[in-house]
Design a protein that fits this description.
This protein has 14 helices and 17 strands. By secondary structure, the protein is α/β, with parallel strands linked by helices. It folds into 2 domains: 163 residues, NAD(P)-binding Rossmann-like Domain (Rossmann fold, 3-Layer(aba) Sandwich), CATH 3.40.50.720; 280 residues, Dihydrodipicolinate Reductase, domain 2 (2-Layer Sandwich). A hairpin with a 3-residue loop joins β14 and β15.
Protein backbone atom coordinates (compact mmCIF):
# COMPACT_ATOMS: atom_id res chain seq x y z
CA UNK A 1 0.00 0.00 0.00
CA UNK A 2 2.78 2.40 -0.95
CA UNK A 3 0.65 4.89 -2.88
CA UNK A 4 -0.56 8.16 -1.38
CA UNK A 5 -3.99 9.14 -2.64
CA UNK A 6 -4.24 12.40 -4.55
CA UNK A 7 -8.06 12.42 -4.43
CA UNK A 8 -10.40 12.04 -1.46
CA UNK A 9 -14.15 11.48 -1.76
CA UNK A 10 -16.22 12.28 1.33
CA UNK A 11 -19.58 10.53 1.50
CA UNK A 12 -21.95 12.24 3.92
CA UNK A 13 -20.11 15.51 3.30
CA UNK A 14 -22.96 17.69 4.59
CA UNK A 15 -23.65 15.67 7.73
CA UNK A 16 -22.93 16.56 11.34
CA UNK A 17 -19.74 14.45 11.52
CA UNK A 18 -18.35 16.11 8.41
CA UNK A 19 -19.04 19.59 9.77
CA UNK A 20 -17.70 19.01 13.29
CA UNK A 21 -14.79 16.68 12.64
CA UNK A 22 -13.93 15.71 9.07
CA UNK A 23 -13.75 19.10 7.36
CA UNK A 24 -11.98 20.82 10.30
CA UNK A 25 -9.47 17.94 10.47
CA UNK A 26 -8.67 18.16 6.77
CA UNK A 27 -8.35 21.94 6.94
CA UNK A 28 -5.95 21.64 9.90
CA UNK A 29 -3.82 19.12 7.99
CA UNK A 30 -3.78 21.45 5.01
CA UNK A 31 -2.79 24.41 7.20
CA UNK A 32 0.23 22.48 8.44
CA UNK A 33 1.19 21.28 4.95
CA UNK A 34 0.66 17.63 5.90
CA UNK A 35 -1.31 16.72 2.78
CA UNK A 36 -0.04 16.97 -0.77
CA UNK A 37 -0.56 20.28 -2.56
CA UNK A 38 -2.44 18.52 -5.34
CA UNK A 39 -4.90 16.60 -3.09
CA UNK A 40 -8.43 17.18 -4.36
CA UNK A 41 -11.41 16.68 -2.04
CA UNK A 42 -14.81 15.84 -3.48
CA UNK A 43 -17.82 16.00 -1.20
CA UNK A 44 -20.96 14.05 -1.94
CA UNK A 45 -24.35 13.67 -0.27
CA UNK A 46 -28.03 13.92 -1.11
CA UNK A 47 -28.07 17.67 -0.44
CA UNK A 48 -28.27 19.84 -3.54
CA UNK A 49 -25.11 21.91 -3.95
CA UNK A 50 -22.82 22.99 -6.75
CA UNK A 51 -19.11 23.51 -6.08
CA UNK A 52 -19.56 27.09 -4.93
CA UNK A 53 -22.50 26.18 -2.72
CA UNK A 54 -20.56 23.41 -1.01
CA UNK A 55 -17.57 25.67 -0.46
CA UNK A 56 -19.85 28.20 1.21
CA UNK A 57 -21.39 25.43 3.33
CA UNK A 58 -17.95 24.09 4.31
CA UNK A 59 -16.67 27.59 5.03
CA UNK A 60 -19.52 28.21 7.48
CA UNK A 61 -18.82 24.89 9.23
CA UNK A 62 -15.12 25.69 9.51
CA UNK A 63 -15.79 29.14 10.93
CA UNK A 64 -17.92 27.47 13.59
CA UNK A 65 -15.78 24.46 14.50
CA UNK A 66 -12.17 25.24 13.58
CA UNK A 67 -9.92 26.68 16.32
CA UNK A 68 -9.35 30.39 15.96
CA UNK A 69 -5.62 30.07 15.30
CA UNK A 70 -6.25 27.98 12.19
CA UNK A 71 -9.00 29.97 10.53
CA UNK A 72 -6.55 31.84 8.32
CA UNK A 73 -6.14 28.58 6.39
CA UNK A 74 -9.82 28.35 5.41
CA UNK A 75 -9.75 30.22 2.04
CA UNK A 76 -6.89 28.13 0.62
CA UNK A 77 -8.46 24.91 1.86
CA UNK A 78 -11.82 25.69 0.26
CA UNK A 79 -10.12 25.81 -3.14
CA UNK A 80 -9.47 22.07 -2.83
CA UNK A 81 -13.19 21.31 -2.51
CA UNK A 82 -15.73 20.34 -5.12
CA UNK A 83 -19.09 18.63 -4.82
CA UNK A 84 -21.41 16.17 -6.53
CA UNK A 85 -24.96 15.52 -5.39
CA UNK A 86 -25.58 11.79 -5.07
CA UNK A 87 -28.40 9.53 -3.93
CA UNK A 88 -26.51 6.34 -3.01
CA UNK A 89 -29.61 4.23 -3.63
CA UNK A 90 -29.62 5.31 -7.29
CA UNK A 91 -26.86 3.42 -9.19
CA UNK A 92 -26.89 5.86 -12.11
CA UNK A 93 -25.52 8.67 -9.97
CA UNK A 94 -22.14 6.99 -9.46
CA UNK A 95 -21.12 7.45 -13.08
CA UNK A 96 -21.57 11.20 -12.62
CA UNK A 97 -19.50 11.07 -9.41
CA UNK A 98 -16.77 9.14 -11.25
CA UNK A 99 -16.73 11.76 -14.00
CA UNK A 100 -16.37 14.45 -11.34
CA UNK A 101 -13.44 12.60 -9.77
CA UNK A 102 -11.68 11.99 -13.07
CA UNK A 103 -8.80 9.54 -13.29
CA UNK A 104 -7.96 7.68 -10.08
CA UNK A 105 -4.83 5.98 -11.41
CA UNK A 106 -2.62 7.82 -8.91
CA UNK A 107 -4.66 6.86 -5.86
CA UNK A 108 -8.12 7.49 -4.41
CA UNK A 109 -9.22 7.46 -0.77
CA UNK A 110 -12.90 7.25 0.14
CA UNK A 111 -14.39 8.22 3.50
CA UNK A 112 -17.76 6.49 3.78
CA UNK A 113 -20.14 7.69 6.47
CA UNK A 114 -23.60 6.40 5.68
CA UNK A 115 -26.54 4.46 7.05
CA UNK A 116 -25.94 0.68 7.27
CA UNK A 117 -28.69 0.08 4.70
CA UNK A 118 -26.73 2.08 2.10
CA UNK A 119 -23.39 0.27 2.39
CA UNK A 120 -24.22 -2.42 -0.15
CA UNK A 121 -25.65 -0.15 -2.88
CA UNK A 122 -22.79 2.30 -2.35
CA UNK A 123 -20.14 -0.38 -2.81
CA UNK A 124 -21.92 -1.69 -5.91
CA UNK A 125 -22.07 1.82 -7.32
CA UNK A 126 -18.39 2.43 -6.67
CA UNK A 127 -17.44 -0.85 -8.33
CA UNK A 128 -19.67 -0.33 -11.36
CA UNK A 129 -18.36 3.20 -11.95
CA UNK A 130 -14.67 2.26 -11.74
CA UNK A 131 -14.12 4.04 -8.43
CA UNK A 132 -13.14 0.78 -6.66
CA UNK A 133 -9.91 0.24 -8.57
CA UNK A 134 -6.78 -1.37 -7.16
CA UNK A 135 -5.58 2.15 -6.36
CA UNK A 136 -8.60 2.89 -4.13
CA UNK A 137 -8.82 2.42 -0.37
CA UNK A 138 -11.97 2.96 1.65
CA UNK A 139 -12.53 4.19 5.20
CA UNK A 140 -15.72 2.93 6.86
CA UNK A 141 -17.32 4.99 9.62
CA UNK A 142 -19.57 3.25 12.15
CA UNK A 143 -22.16 1.91 12.61
CA UNK A 144 -21.07 -1.22 10.77
CA UNK A 145 -24.22 -3.18 11.48
CA UNK A 146 -26.39 -3.77 14.52
CA UNK A 147 -25.27 -7.32 15.33
CA UNK A 148 -22.87 -9.98 14.09
CA UNK A 149 -25.12 -11.03 11.20
CA UNK A 150 -25.65 -7.52 9.81
CA UNK A 151 -21.98 -6.66 10.35
CA UNK A 152 -20.92 -9.74 8.36
CA UNK A 153 -23.37 -8.77 5.63
CA UNK A 154 -21.82 -5.29 5.36
CA UNK A 155 -18.27 -6.65 5.44
CA UNK A 156 -19.13 -9.24 2.79
CA UNK A 157 -20.55 -6.48 0.58
CA UNK A 158 -17.45 -4.32 1.00
CA UNK A 159 -15.07 -7.24 0.43
CA UNK A 160 -16.58 -7.91 -3.01
CA UNK A 161 -14.91 -4.72 -4.25
CA UNK A 162 -12.12 -4.14 -1.72
CA UNK A 163 -9.61 -6.60 -0.23
CA UNK A 164 -8.93 -6.36 3.52
CA UNK A 165 -5.67 -4.46 3.01
CA UNK A 166 -7.62 -1.61 1.39
CA UNK A 167 -10.43 -1.46 4.01
CA UNK A 168 -9.96 1.02 6.87
CA UNK A 169 -12.62 0.55 9.58
CA UNK A 170 -12.66 3.66 11.73
CA UNK A 171 -12.89 3.79 15.51
CA UNK A 172 -11.99 7.38 16.31
CA UNK A 173 -10.89 6.48 19.85
CA UNK A 174 -7.84 4.79 18.33
CA UNK A 175 -6.77 8.15 16.93
CA UNK A 176 -6.67 9.81 20.35
CA UNK A 177 -3.17 10.65 21.52
CA UNK A 178 -3.56 9.18 25.00
CA UNK A 179 -4.90 5.90 23.63
CA UNK A 180 -1.74 5.55 21.55
CA UNK A 181 0.28 6.59 24.58
CA UNK A 182 -1.13 3.55 26.35
CA UNK A 183 1.03 1.41 24.05
CA UNK A 184 4.06 3.59 24.75
CA UNK A 185 3.41 3.41 28.49
CA UNK A 186 3.27 -0.37 28.42
CA UNK A 187 5.90 -1.28 25.87
CA UNK A 188 8.47 1.52 26.09
CA UNK A 189 8.91 1.38 29.87
CA UNK A 190 10.38 -1.59 31.70
CA UNK A 191 8.75 -0.21 34.86
CA UNK A 192 5.21 -1.35 34.01
CA UNK A 193 5.20 -4.39 31.75
CA UNK A 194 6.60 -6.87 34.36
CA UNK A 195 3.71 -5.87 36.67
CA UNK A 196 1.01 -5.91 33.97
CA UNK A 197 -0.62 -9.22 34.90
CA UNK A 198 -2.83 -11.09 37.36
CA UNK A 199 -0.04 -11.40 39.91
CA UNK A 200 0.12 -7.65 40.48
CA UNK A 201 -3.14 -6.13 39.18
CA UNK A 202 -6.33 -6.48 41.20
CA UNK A 203 -8.78 -5.13 38.64
CA UNK A 204 -9.18 -2.68 35.75
CA UNK A 205 -11.90 -0.04 35.31
CA UNK A 206 -12.80 1.59 32.00
CA UNK A 207 -15.29 4.47 32.12
CA UNK A 208 -16.76 6.44 29.23
CA UNK A 209 -19.12 9.00 30.75
CA UNK A 210 -21.16 11.58 28.86
CA UNK A 211 -23.18 14.49 30.22
CA UNK A 212 -25.23 14.89 27.03
CA UNK A 213 -28.52 13.24 26.15
CA UNK A 214 -29.77 12.39 22.67
CA UNK A 215 -28.31 15.54 21.07
CA UNK A 216 -30.07 15.10 17.71
CA UNK A 217 -29.29 11.36 17.46
CA UNK A 218 -32.82 10.21 18.28
CA UNK A 219 -33.30 7.94 15.28
CA UNK A 220 -29.95 6.19 15.61
CA UNK A 221 -29.56 5.98 19.37
CA UNK A 222 -32.94 4.49 20.26
CA UNK A 223 -32.23 1.65 17.86
CA UNK A 224 -28.74 1.11 19.25
CA UNK A 225 -28.43 1.86 22.97
CA UNK A 226 -25.30 2.24 25.07
CA UNK A 227 -24.09 -1.33 24.60
CA UNK A 228 -23.93 -1.15 20.83
CA UNK A 229 -23.09 2.55 20.58
CA UNK A 230 -20.14 2.60 22.98
CA UNK A 231 -19.16 -0.82 24.35
CA UNK A 232 -19.08 -2.76 21.07
CA UNK A 233 -16.45 -0.49 19.56
CA UNK A 234 -14.72 2.14 21.71
CA UNK A 235 -14.68 0.34 25.05
CA UNK A 236 -13.72 -3.07 23.72
CA UNK A 237 -10.89 -1.48 21.75
CA UNK A 238 -9.63 0.19 24.93
CA UNK A 239 -9.89 -3.12 26.78
CA UNK A 240 -7.94 -4.89 24.04
CA UNK A 241 -5.13 -2.30 24.16
CA UNK A 242 -4.90 -2.61 27.94
CA UNK A 243 -4.87 -6.41 27.89
CA UNK A 244 -2.99 -7.36 24.72
CA UNK A 245 0.33 -9.21 24.72
CA UNK A 246 3.39 -7.31 23.46
CA UNK A 247 3.33 -7.19 19.64
CA UNK A 248 6.63 -7.90 17.91
CA UNK A 249 6.58 -4.48 16.23
CA UNK A 250 4.54 -1.30 15.94
CA UNK A 251 2.84 -2.16 12.68
CA UNK A 252 -0.72 -2.92 11.71
CA UNK A 253 -0.77 -6.73 11.42
CA UNK A 254 1.21 -7.31 14.61
CA UNK A 255 -0.89 -5.00 16.80
CA UNK A 256 -4.21 -6.21 15.41
CA UNK A 257 -3.18 -9.86 15.81
CA UNK A 258 -2.69 -9.30 19.54
CA UNK A 259 -5.91 -7.33 19.98
CA UNK A 260 -8.05 -10.01 18.40
CA UNK A 261 -6.57 -12.66 20.71
CA UNK A 262 -7.85 -10.67 23.69
CA UNK A 263 -11.30 -10.21 22.19
CA UNK A 264 -11.60 -13.92 21.50
CA UNK A 265 -10.55 -14.72 25.07
CA UNK A 266 -13.38 -12.66 26.60
CA UNK A 267 -15.58 -14.87 28.75
CA UNK A 268 -19.28 -14.58 27.95
CA UNK A 269 -20.85 -12.63 30.85
CA UNK A 270 -23.27 -14.42 33.15
CA UNK A 271 -26.65 -13.27 34.42
CA UNK A 272 -25.26 -11.07 37.21
CA UNK A 273 -22.39 -9.57 35.23
CA UNK A 274 -24.18 -6.57 33.71
CA UNK A 275 -26.48 -3.73 34.70
CA UNK A 276 -28.51 -1.51 32.39
CA UNK A 277 -30.10 1.85 33.08
CA UNK A 278 -32.08 4.67 31.52
CA UNK A 279 -31.94 8.26 32.75
CA UNK A 280 -34.87 10.23 34.08
CA UNK A 281 -35.21 13.97 34.56
CA UNK A 282 -32.54 15.55 36.72
CA UNK A 283 -29.85 18.22 36.62
CA UNK A 284 -26.47 18.49 34.89
CA UNK A 285 -24.14 21.24 36.17
CA UNK A 286 -27.11 22.87 37.92
CA UNK A 287 -29.32 22.96 34.81
CA UNK A 288 -32.51 20.90 34.64
CA UNK A 289 -32.60 18.27 31.89
CA UNK A 290 -35.46 16.00 30.75
CA UNK A 291 -35.58 12.24 31.03
CA UNK A 292 -34.82 9.96 28.09
CA UNK A 293 -38.48 9.11 27.48
CA UNK A 294 -39.32 12.83 27.50
CA UNK A 295 -36.60 13.59 24.95
CA UNK A 296 -37.65 10.64 22.84
CA UNK A 297 -41.34 11.47 23.07
CA UNK A 298 -42.35 7.89 23.88
CA UNK A 299 -41.61 5.00 26.21
CA UNK A 300 -38.61 2.87 25.30
CA UNK A 301 -36.58 -0.04 26.70
CA UNK A 302 -33.33 1.26 25.20
CA UNK A 303 -30.50 1.44 27.71
CA UNK A 304 -28.63 4.73 28.12
CA UNK A 305 -26.28 3.23 30.71
CA UNK A 306 -24.52 -0.10 30.98
CA UNK A 307 -22.00 -1.53 33.45
CA UNK A 308 -20.33 -4.88 32.81
CA UNK A 309 -17.95 -7.11 34.74
CA UNK A 310 -15.78 -8.85 32.14
CA UNK A 311 -13.09 -11.53 32.39
CA UNK A 312 -10.34 -12.48 29.98
CA UNK A 313 -9.58 -16.18 30.15
CA UNK A 314 -5.87 -16.36 29.45
CA UNK A 315 -2.70 -16.74 31.52
CA UNK A 316 -2.00 -13.04 31.93
CA UNK A 317 -5.46 -12.01 33.14
CA UNK A 318 -7.02 -15.08 34.75
CA UNK A 319 -9.08 -13.94 37.74
CA UNK A 320 -8.71 -10.19 37.07
CA UNK A 321 -12.11 -8.49 36.55
CA UNK A 322 -12.46 -5.68 34.03
CA UNK A 323 -15.26 -3.29 34.93
CA UNK A 324 -16.74 -1.36 32.00
CA UNK A 325 -19.12 1.54 32.54
CA UNK A 326 -20.67 3.99 30.10
CA UNK A 327 -23.74 6.18 30.11
CA UNK A 328 -25.46 9.39 29.12
CA UNK A 329 -26.47 12.22 31.46
CA UNK A 330 -23.79 11.30 33.98
CA UNK A 331 -22.28 13.98 36.31
CA UNK A 332 -19.20 14.69 34.21
CA UNK A 333 -17.73 14.00 30.81
CA UNK A 334 -14.72 11.75 31.07
CA UNK A 335 -13.06 8.76 29.51
CA UNK A 336 -10.49 7.06 31.68
CA UNK A 337 -8.78 3.76 32.39
CA UNK A 338 -7.90 2.84 35.97
CA UNK A 339 -5.36 0.10 36.65
CA UNK A 340 -5.78 -0.92 40.30
CA UNK A 341 -2.70 -2.74 41.56
CA UNK A 342 -2.80 -5.20 44.43
CA UNK A 343 -1.84 -4.27 47.97
CA UNK A 344 1.65 -4.96 49.25
CA UNK A 345 1.77 -8.51 50.63
CA UNK A 346 2.94 -7.30 54.05
CA UNK A 347 3.00 -3.77 55.47
CA UNK A 348 5.97 -3.10 57.70
CA UNK A 349 4.25 0.09 58.87
CA UNK A 350 1.04 -1.50 60.24
CA UNK A 351 2.50 -1.85 63.72
CA UNK A 352 3.10 1.91 63.76
CA UNK A 353 -0.53 2.65 62.96
CA UNK A 354 0.01 3.37 59.26
CA UNK A 355 -2.41 2.24 56.61
CA UNK A 356 -1.16 1.55 53.11
CA UNK A 357 -3.37 1.85 50.01
CA UNK A 358 -2.69 -0.05 46.77
CA UNK A 359 -1.17 1.90 43.90
CA UNK A 360 -3.41 3.15 41.11
CA UNK A 361 -2.52 4.07 37.54
CA UNK A 362 -5.08 6.45 36.03
CA UNK A 363 -5.00 7.10 32.29
CA UNK A 364 -7.20 10.04 31.34
CA UNK A 365 -8.27 10.11 27.69
CA UNK A 366 -10.82 12.94 27.64
CA UNK A 367 -11.44 15.74 28.34
CA UNK A 368 -8.00 15.86 30.01
CA UNK A 369 -5.22 13.80 28.52
CA UNK A 370 -3.08 12.78 31.44
CA UNK A 371 -1.42 9.84 33.17
CA UNK A 372 -1.44 9.71 36.96
CA UNK A 373 0.10 7.23 39.38
CA UNK A 374 -0.75 7.19 43.07
CA UNK A 375 2.09 6.15 45.36
CA UNK A 376 2.30 5.92 49.14
CA UNK A 377 4.47 8.46 50.95
CA UNK A 378 5.14 9.26 54.59
CA UNK A 379 3.45 12.35 56.00
CA UNK A 380 6.19 14.66 57.35
CA UNK A 381 6.51 14.86 61.14
CA UNK A 382 8.26 13.47 64.21
CA UNK A 383 5.91 10.46 64.31
CA UNK A 384 5.48 10.48 68.11
CA UNK A 385 1.92 9.20 67.66
CA UNK A 386 2.89 6.71 64.97
CA UNK A 387 3.78 6.79 61.31
CA UNK A 388 1.19 8.11 58.88
CA UNK A 389 1.15 7.34 55.17
CA UNK A 390 -0.80 9.12 52.45
CA UNK A 391 -1.44 8.64 48.76
CA UNK A 392 0.53 11.12 46.67
CA UNK A 393 -0.34 11.59 42.99
CA UNK A 394 2.36 11.70 40.34
CA UNK A 395 0.67 13.38 37.37
CA UNK A 396 1.82 13.78 33.80
CA UNK A 397 -0.38 16.20 31.89
CA UNK A 398 0.19 15.56 28.20
CA UNK A 399 -0.41 19.18 27.11
CA UNK A 400 2.08 20.36 29.74
CA UNK A 401 4.64 17.64 29.06
CA UNK A 402 4.53 18.32 25.32
CA UNK A 403 3.91 22.04 25.09
CA UNK A 404 5.50 22.40 21.66
CA UNK A 405 3.56 20.02 19.37
CA UNK A 406 0.06 21.05 18.37
CA UNK A 407 -2.78 19.07 19.85
CA UNK A 408 -4.40 16.94 17.17
CA UNK A 409 -7.95 15.65 17.19
CA UNK A 410 -8.36 11.97 16.38
CA UNK A 411 -9.76 12.44 12.88
CA UNK A 412 -6.69 14.39 11.75
CA UNK A 413 -4.48 11.37 12.32
CA UNK A 414 -7.00 8.86 10.97
CA UNK A 415 -7.75 10.80 7.78
CA UNK A 416 -4.04 11.28 7.13
CA UNK A 417 -3.44 7.55 7.67
CA UNK A 418 -6.28 6.77 5.26
CA UNK A 419 -4.78 9.03 2.60
CA UNK A 420 -1.31 7.54 3.12
CA UNK A 421 -2.40 3.92 3.64
CA UNK A 422 -1.33 3.12 7.23
CA UNK A 423 -3.79 0.63 8.80
CA UNK A 424 -2.25 0.49 12.30
CA UNK A 425 -5.00 2.51 13.99
CA UNK A 426 -7.89 0.91 12.12
CA UNK A 427 -9.94 -2.15 13.01
CA UNK A 428 -9.66 -5.45 11.16
CA UNK A 429 -12.67 -7.57 10.25
CA UNK A 430 -11.90 -10.38 12.70
CA UNK A 431 -11.74 -7.82 15.53
CA UNK A 432 -15.16 -6.45 14.61
CA UNK A 433 -16.68 -9.91 14.48
CA UNK A 434 -15.15 -10.95 17.82
CA UNK A 435 -16.59 -7.78 19.37
CA UNK A 436 -20.05 -8.43 17.95
CA UNK A 437 -19.97 -12.08 19.10
CA UNK A 438 -19.51 -10.91 22.71
CA UNK A 439 -22.07 -8.09 22.46
CA UNK A 440 -24.69 -10.36 20.88
CA UNK A 441 -24.24 -12.87 23.71
CA UNK A 442 -24.91 -10.13 26.28
CA UNK A 443 -28.05 -9.00 24.47
CA UNK A 444 -29.29 -12.56 24.17
CA UNK A 445 -28.78 -12.97 27.91
CA UNK A 446 -30.79 -9.82 28.58
CA UNK A 447 -33.61 -11.20 26.44
CA UNK A 448 -33.58 -14.62 28.13
CA UNK A 449 -33.69 -13.12 31.63
CA UNK A 450 -36.11 -10.28 30.84
CA UNK A 451 -33.61 -7.55 31.68
CA UNK A 452 -35.02 -4.03 31.35
CA UNK A 453 -33.14 -0.82 32.17
CA UNK A 454 -33.29 0.41 35.75
CA UNK A 455 -33.97 4.13 36.05
CA UNK A 456 -31.41 6.63 37.30
CA UNK A 457 -31.57 10.36 37.82
CA UNK A 458 -29.74 12.50 35.29
CA UNK A 459 -26.65 13.86 36.98
CA UNK A 460 -26.01 10.68 38.99
CA UNK A 461 -23.54 7.88 38.26
CA UNK A 462 -26.23 5.49 37.05
CA UNK A 463 -28.49 3.02 38.85
CA UNK A 464 -27.50 1.80 42.30
CA UNK A 465 -27.22 -1.73 40.92
CA UNK A 466 -24.08 -0.60 39.04
CA UNK A 467 -22.47 0.34 42.35
CA UNK A 468 -23.45 -3.04 43.77
CA UNK A 469 -21.98 -4.82 40.72
CA UNK A 470 -18.52 -3.65 41.76
CA UNK A 471 -19.01 -3.58 45.53
CA UNK A 472 -19.89 -7.27 45.62
CA UNK A 473 -16.23 -7.80 44.73
CA UNK A 474 -15.02 -5.22 47.22
CA UNK A 475 -14.41 -2.69 44.43
CA UNK A 476 -15.40 0.98 44.36
CA UNK A 477 -15.84 2.83 41.08
CA UNK A 478 -13.27 5.57 40.59
CA UNK A 479 -15.10 8.90 40.60
Amino acid sequence: MAFIADKLILFGATGDLAQRMVLPSLCALDADHLVARDLKIIGTARSEHDDAGFRAFAGAALEKYLPEDRKAAIPAFLERLSYQTLDASDPSGFAVLAAKAGTVDDGLAIFLSTAPSLFEPTIKGLAASGLASDKTRIGLEKPLGTDLGSSCHINDAVSVAFPEERIFRIDHYLGKETVQNLLALRFANVLFEPLWNAQHIDHVQITVAETVGLEGRVGFYDGAGALRDMVQNHMLQLLALVAMEPPHSYEAASIRDEKVKVLRALRLPGEGDSVTGQYRAGAISGAAVPGYDDELGKDSDTETFVAIRAHIDNWRWKGVPFYLRTGKRLPERKTEIVIQFKAVPHSIFAGKGARSEPNKLIIGIQPRENIGLTVMAKIPGLDRGGIRLREVPLDISMPDAFAGPKKRIAYERLLLDLIEGDQTLFVRRDEVEAQWHWIDAIREGWGEHGVVPKTYTAGSWGPSAAIALAERDGVTWHE
